[in-house]
Amino acid sequence: MAGGGLAVAAAGGVEFEAKITPIVIISCIMAATGGLMFGYDVGVSGGVTAMPEFLKKFFPVVYRKTEEGKLATFFASYTTRRLGRRLTMLIAGVFFIFGVIFNAAAQNLAMLIVGRILLGCGVGFANQAVPVFLSEIAPTRIRGGLNILFQLNVTIGILFANLVNYGTAKIEGGWGWRLSLGLAGIPALMLTVGALLVVDTPNSLIERGKLEEGKAVLRKIRGTDNVEPEYLELVEASRIAKEVKHPFRNLLLRKNRPPLIISIALQFFQQFTGINAIMFYAPVLFSTLGFGNDASLYSTVITGAVNVLSTIVSIYSVDKLGRRILLLEAGVQMFFAQVVIAIILGIKVTETSDNLSTGFAVLVVIMVCTFISAFAWSWGPLGWLIPSETFPLETRSAGQSITVCINLVFTFVIAQAFLSMLCHFKFGIFLFFSGWVLIMSIFVWFLVPETKNIPIEEMTERVWKKHWLWKRFMDDDDEYVHHDDLAKKNGFVGPL
């Protein structure tokens, strides 16, 4: 193996040789700006809709952006498969740029709605294509870390948006909301330019019949000429994918149920960790500590910084420790933090007293940061990573589409139900979510397999067929085809 390269053992004793090449790192960084776009959109929306001048102009309309993104997600599944990951990211950036223009220049409600629809389309296309692109282009040994660049950018985008909203809300003249919405064009432009500069993934090129181009790109991104074993795996995966005429219908086949069930469960559980309850309570706690009018700023900076830094921890640890250990450790940490918060609030916040002492308030803030850090290095990024790397090529785009859709649906459900739940449960809302954390941790322990260091096209053989439960869903007669057999089947004789 060439110096500085990485070798990943595949089934049949064959190794996939790969170096960590600059083109891969640069491509992943550029593609991951789709997360920055998504995060800024999430962070800026709530702040803008609370600005008095914005409300005065458009009246208090609740924008259900999750509804705007869901339909776009299904269209994005088609473009991701037929047109490629790179072009889908380009479409996402263009949609978002036009949405930003309509929103920042909005003179009436119609322009605002059109802008939100375009932004929803951009988010839907980006969330569909970017995680798949990152998982396919990255070398197996660092696939998790490079994929989590998407989530890192989401957290940075949210933090940046909250800080922008804090500043623009103080602008006199009533045009601050336009600046907040207009700055969303920066990450959108970064994604658009990035999509023009990066190469498409070998998986996508081969799937669309561009075999030689796919092989050339594979050599380029792996930094070696010895790509035959991985190339043959991709060719065989492409052959199987072409036999599938209806990817969404194919998702329901028995053999595809394990990754589908896990993807849906991860998105459901991600929203039921209680992250929304924690983030909602943070500004109240900082106000209790005496920060006054600046409580929301301190809350934003501290929780946002914890979010970003903990996501970086995940980037460095996910390919060393594995996916399961991060999810399980985070489950213990989040459960503990929420129970402590519930006990303190339950004892100290009563019908006759709603003030925490400084000492207890500090303890609750520490528990809030403890919870956020655990979420940021586990359920936040891994909810996107695991689905993007576990579906076979023939259902990967459709599977990612379902993943994004489920995430948006339950984000919407929690957002709509949260305030009502808080009013009824009070401090018990943290016990409610801690119960779900316990359930999801049990789910991970028994049903989520480890995918660390497994080549993306080897998941069926090396993950699903070896799991105590999911192997029952695999076809018994679907025998593994070794690389020599693949070569003969695809008409290759001798070295490629």
From TrEMBL:
GO terms for cellular component: membrane. Keywords: Membrane, Sugar transport, Symport, Transmembrane, Transmembrane helix, Transport. The keyword Cell cycle does not apply. It is a multi-pass membrane protein. Signal peptide: none annotated. This is Major facilitator superfamily (MFS) profile domain-containing protein. InterPro entries: MFS_dom, MFS_STP/MST-like_plant, MFS_sugar_transport-like, MFS_trans_sf, STP/PLT_plant, Sugar/inositol_transpt, Sugar_transporter_CS. It comes from Lactuca virosa.
